[in-house]
Amino acid sequence: MENSIDEGMTAQSQRRYSCWPQTRRLSAYLLAAWFVMTFGMLFFARELSNVYFFGWSLPLYMAAQGLSLFYVLILAVYSLGMRRIEKSGKGKA
Predict the structure, then answer these.
(1) How far apart are CA 69 and CA 66, in angstroms?
(2) Beta carbons of 79 and 58 less than 8 angstroms apart
(3) Alpha carbons 53 and 32: distance in angstroms, whole number
(4) What CA–CA distance (Å, rounded) separates 85 from 68?
(5) Each residue of 25-74: pLDDT tens digit?
(6) Which range is least confidently modeled, 3-12, 35-44, 51-60, 77-86?
(7) Distance CA 63, CA 79 (A)
(8) CA separation, residue 34 to residues 2, 7, 17, 38, 41 (Å)
(9) Which intervals hold domain Sodium symporter small subunit (predicted)?
(10) What is the Cα 24 distance to its own chain's centre?
(11) If pLDDT is split at 50, 70 and 90, which confidence band does 1 have?
């Protein structure tokens, strides 16, 4: 049964299927980083209020600018990671 499915797949769909585990892993890592940074800053804001960064308390700085920059960094890492995954997948099928 599984051979008949593989025979019916086009080369493009086989490439997509072979890259899927790497794509899921990259997405999971970046989602975990997003959750840890966002939840960590909000949950530990009171404890981190004594830490100063460029003259501002760390929770205030991260809420105002730091987390936004971190989210842009997540997008850049995702874009570069997907480009690498797609390039490595082109030679497989």
Answers:
(1) 5
(2) no
(3) 24
(4) 26
(5) 999 999 999 999 999 888 888 888 888 888 888 888 888 888 899 999 99
(6) 3-12
(7) 24
(8) 37, 39, 26, 6, 11
(9) 20-87
(10) 9
(11) very low
pTM assigned to the model = 0.70
**Helix axes of 67-90 and 11-43: crossing angle, nearest 10 degrees:** 160
CA of 87: how far to CAs of 19, 29, 30, 49, 81, in Å? 10, 20, 20, 44, 10
Question: Rounded distance, CA 23 to CA 73, Å?
Answer: 17
Length of the chain: 93
Which residues in the chain belong to E strands, given as ranges? 52-53, 56-57
Domain residue spans in the chain?
12-90
3-state helix, strand, coil in the chain (%, to 5): 85, 5, 15
